[in-house]
Structures are given as structure tokens and as C-alpha cells.
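Sequence in, structure out.
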Amino acid sequence: MQVWIEAALNGPWTRARQPRMPLTVAEIVAEGVACAQAGAAVIHVHAYDPATGRQNDDPDTYAAIIEGIRAAADVIVYPTLPFVQSAEAFRPGALEARYAAVEVLGRRGLLEWAVVDPGSTNLVTVAEAARAEPGSVYLNPGEHVLRGLRLAVEHRFVPSYAVYEPGFLRLGAALARSLPGCPPPLYRFMFSDHFTFGFPPAPYALEAYLRLMEATTPGSPWMVAGLGVDIRPLVPLAVARGGHLRVGLEDAPFGTQTSNAALVEEMATLVALEGGRPATAAEIRQALGSA
């Protein structure tokens, strides 16, 4: 049984929340290669400006990361999108700016997957809510979702859907069906212990998503992931039901001291205990029809 393992190396957190996450191109490449050697066939990255420690969605930086990892390992490497919230999402030029790096990387033939998140949600931690703090809003207006899917059609990359709420699944499936030639998306179910969106990482929650998927887009590939979460309790059920897994310092509880490679190695061991094995990138491409 082939199980896809994705490693999300850093995320938007900065080292204030994840002190062990890689920032420089060299660090990200080295950790991506180490995760590939540990069993990951998919690597997800956020590019950073090492001088400021803040996310920097520069296509040349992403190109250096993608090419650097691929030079050492046959894996799928894909970037993120800039985070937008509140009125920023609707300002003139926001749509074009948000997908600028994706367009450049697509034209260069460097994209196999890319982030297209089909919905918006409040990002509020349990602790923030208890203090009556508002948190932030992760915005993906419909125009942004459609822009990402149209670029997927144009550049033939797989849309990687983060499903924070059940409606993301329904909307994402409907929009993908609406565009002839759209590559089949990957549905990544986002669980959390730390944040208040969606579901906690509980078996009933995964079963709810799977029942909705069966009614909405049967047979589509799916993955268990999240933010501020330990997904290990869901591994037996996910593997038994034909799902895939994501780990890494983007998803792990804040302050995690385990390295990305060690997280991947542990996940590969858990998969083996359930009778599965980590898939290769070639096997994933073949399953998605993109080989």
C-alpha cells in the first residue's frame, strides 16, 4: 500500500513560533533533501528573507529552492501563496500580485503542484478566543480561487487544496469541475488542536470528511494534515482508508524541537506499522496522471 508523505518545512510562522524551521535557501534545500531521504516524496516550502526573518514570495528564491532540492532528490517541491487578510484581498492588483510567483514558476516549468485554497476562514487559537481576541482571517475570495485553478489548467500543475472547513471541499470540487482540463486536485484535510477552525484530529472528524468526499468527489486523493496539530492518532485510520499524510514544522505544535527529517522518519515508521510504505514521487505522478 503506497502512502504519500509530504513534508511542510517551515510555514508562515517565523522562528518566534517555530525556532527550528529553516529560513535560508541553503537550509531549506538541505532539509528538503533530508526529508526526501527519510521517506517524503512531496516537499512544501515558504521562502524567507533571512535578513528580516519574514516570508518573501520571490519567484527566484523559490526557483533556487525547487531546483536545489530536485538536483539531489526526485521529489515534488511546491511553494505557498502570500497570506492576505481583510481589505488587502480586494485592493486593485491584489489578485495579480498574489499569483505573480506562481505564474513565473509555471512559465519556467518548475511547478508540479501549487497551493489553491478554496475558501476563507478565521485563524484564531483556542487561547486567543479564551481572551476574547479576534485572531486573523485567511482570505481566498472566489476570484483568487478561480485564478489559481486557471493557472493550473494553463501550466498543468496539481491544485493542492487545504480544506479548513467542509465547505472548502464542496466549493473546491465544484470549481475544479467547472474548468475543462483542470488537473484533479489533492484534498488536504486540515485539523488542529491549537486553532479553532474545522475539526480536531479525531476519528469522527476524518470520517465526516470522507463521507462528504464520497458524496462530492469520490475517488479523489486526500491527505491528513493541519496546523498546530499532532496527526499521529489519525495515521491508522488514514492508511486503512487509503489516505496520505503530511508532517513538518509548518503543521506541528509551536515550539516543536523535533527536526523535519525526524518527523518524516517517524511517519514512515508509523506507515510501515500499518502495512504501508512511503510512495515515491514517480508513483505519485503516475497516480495523478501527471507522469
